[in-house]
Amino acid sequence: MNYFLASGRNNPLLLRSHQLLLALWAADEGKTSIDGMHRSPLLKGVPLMRWIITTENQGSTLGESTSLTDYIIQSHAMSLVMGLVDEEDDWNGPKYVAEHVYGIECAVGSQLIYNMTGWDGKRAFDLMSLSLPKEGEVAITEQEQAKELVEACLQKSFGLKLAHGLVRKVLGETLGLLWRKNVGSDDVPGTYAHWLRHGMVYWNPDEMPPALEFKVIDPFKRGPLLRED
Questions:
Q1: In angstroms, rounded to a whole number, what is the distance separating the alpha carbons of residues 172 and 68?
Q2: What 3-state class would DSSP assign to 127?
């Protein structure tokens, strides 16, 4: 799954999500690709994922994306379960989510470095590649900016998702792609990247990240999970 999920044994939300995902892959005598999986009748009613869409006349806008929905179909399946009311199975997804899910804002929890650099992978890479000022040296502006990035990520985030896939088509080279291209550049002693890496491996934030407040929403679907409507 994308990002970070944790639960106790036999969690009802994750069990149903996995059951639905297996059914999606088993359709049509077994899928070999995620392409078009968002069109499954089992997912009817779930809003498509929203993504940056670029057109020649209007530039970049935010709209529904079938390709992104297919790309993270596991999250789309979970969204269906979260919005499912199945009285036969004694399952009320909207109520369960509102009462039992501890959700963390992903933009802060795993993408903070991108948001703070405007999703400019080259800028993030250059800042992380800087060396920390030596004793007695005064930090330059870029070093101060790099310090702010590292401290914010270590204080507020549960991880750092390194984007390598679909996002490249819109945003170009990401921090993750540049680190992959420049092998070892994320672990050069004395750099901000090394400090960030060390902190993520050995340190924990002082406080738990705040939980999102989920309200009971109108269901996406009523009826059995695996019934096609």
A1: 16
A2: helix
Spell out the domain ranges in the chain.
12-101, 106-202
Q: Percentage of the chain with pLDDT > 90? A: 72
CA 25/CA 31 separation, integer angstroms: 5
- The answer, as to whether pTM is greater than 0.85, is no
pLDDT at residue 55, rounded to an integer? 47
Region for residue 207 given its phi and psi (left: phi exceeds 0; alpha: psi -120 to 50; beta: otherwise)? beta
pLDDT confidence of residue 58: 52
DSSP class of residue 174?
A: -
> How far from the centroid of its chain's Cα atoms is residue 149's Cα?
19
Q: Left (φ > 0), alpha (ψ -120 to 50) or beta: where does 184 sit?
A: left
Helices (H), 167-221: 168-171, 175-181, 192-202
165 pLDDT band, cuts 50/70/90, is confident
Residue 195 above 90 pLDDT? yes
Residue 2, pLDDT score = 58
Share in percent of the chain as helix, strand, coil (round to 5): 50, 10, 45
- Whole-angstrom CA distances from 208 to 3, 102, 147, 157, 186 are 17, 11, 22, 10, 26
Write out the two tokens for 75.
Answer: 């999250």
130/146 Cα distance (integer angstroms)? 8
Task: Give the Cβ contact number of residue 144 at 10 Å.
Answer: 13
State the DSSP code for 113: H
Task: Measure Cα distances from 28 to 24, 31, 37, 144 in Å.
Answer: 9, 7, 11, 55
